[in-house]
Specification:
This protein has a single domain, classed as Jelly Rolls (Sandwich), CATH 2.60.120. 28% of the residues lie in helices and 26% in strands. Strands 2-3-12-9-14-7-6 form a seven-stranded mixed β-sheet. Strand 2, helix 2 and strand 3 form a beta-alpha-beta unit. Helix 3 packs antiparallel against helix 4. It is globular and about 50 Å long. The structure holds 2-oxoglutaric acid. 2-oxoglutaric acid binds next to strand 7, strand 9, strand 13 and strand 14.
Length: 299
């Protein structure tokens, strides 16, 4: 993983994420949101219940429930709303124990509803954002990962501001703004890049524009909250077994509401359409042709 990290900083230009310390968060966040610049608010979620759960609390909370764990598998040509498919079914507590032992693997829980799986734990945090002057949707979207697993680089299709609060171990996050779309080899009509960031060493010669890429890099520690402005690409590498929860900030203006609602409608139709026979393959062919026309190389 260290090699992967060194490889990323060698290939592209990565700046340290702007950050704020306790006591500075409100002003720093307001400025960040106004300028659409990311910021890591150190220790913002330090006092949240989730920051005090032990792996045992989590295991007890989920009891004997099982779930499908997802892998880091990277495949091109997926639809905009692509959701990684489970690679194995297993008892959730068994998976948490693997994370506690820091066993390297590809296994992740992506946008996982821990509130449904462990209803006895305290999941409500929306009110904790009020000091920042914002309101967030109380959706329990948790992200768990084993050391070495990664979340494919993408931006969220609903074009909304995100707050990622992190717990337990460490994860490394890279962020890139929308000016970097071409340098990231965005697959036309999707929120995905053609570049598998976990294989950069091998892939860099195939994607020369990566050398012009500029973005931010941060190592999240337990209790940190990262503000990811709408449209920012994110790539996440789990350094140790850890988890986060992401909150979506309700849009403030009518125009923003329209854009987010439109994205949900188009995203929802995309999911439904892709279930029809032949549609996913037809869309993949169209995207491959558009990619070839744009970058002069096959997807
Ligand atoms: O932390 C992760 O693994 C993924 C987070 C993410 O993609 C999101 O919050 O949109």
């Amino acid at each position: 993983m260290e090699d992967d990290f060194l490889c990323q900083i060698r290939i592209m230009k990565l700046y340290p994420m702007p950050e704020s310390q306790p006591g500075e968060h409100k002003d720093a966040f307001e400025k960040a949101q106004t300028t659409c610049t990311p910021i890591v608010m150190r220790k913002f979620a330090q006092d949240w219940p989730a920051n005090h759960w032990t792996w045992n609390d989590l295991c007890r909370g989920v009891g004997t429930r099982t779930t499908g764990v997802r892998g880091s598998a990277f495949a091109n040509g997926q639809s905009t709303t692509f959701f990684p498919k489970p690679i194995a079914q297993k008892p959730i507590a068994e998976y948490f124990k693997q994370l506690e032992r820091n066993e390297p693997s590809d296994e992740r829980l992506f946008a996982f509803n821990l509130r449904a799986a462990a209803p006895g734990l305290e999941h409500r945090n929306a009110a904790r954002f009020r000091p920042l002057g914002i309101s967030v949707a109380e959706i329990p979207a948790y992200f768990f990962g084993a050391p070495g697993s990664d979340t494919r680089i993408h931006y969220d299709f609903d074009w909304i501001d995100l707050l990622l609060s992190h717990f337990k171990g460490q994860k490394r996050v890279l962020l890139f703004d929308q000016n970097q779309n071409n340098r990231l080899y965005q697959i036309p009509g999707t929120v995905h890049s053609a570049v598998d960031f976990s294989q950069l060493g091998a892939l860099a010669p195939k994607f020369p524009l990566l050398s012009q890429l500029e973005g931010y890099e941060v190592l999240l520690e337990p209790g940190d909250t990262l503000y990811i402005p709408k449209g920012y690409w994110h790539h996440i590498t789990y350094v140790t077994g850890s988890f986060s929860i992401t909150y979506r900030i309700w849009p403030k203006s009518f125009k923003e509401w329209l854009k987010t609602s439109y994205s949900w409608i188009t995203g929802g139709s995309d999911i439904l359409l892709n279930k029809l026979p032949g549609v996913a393959a037809w869309q993949a062919r169209r995207r491959a042709a558009a990619f070839l026309a744009k970058y002069g190389q096959p997807l």
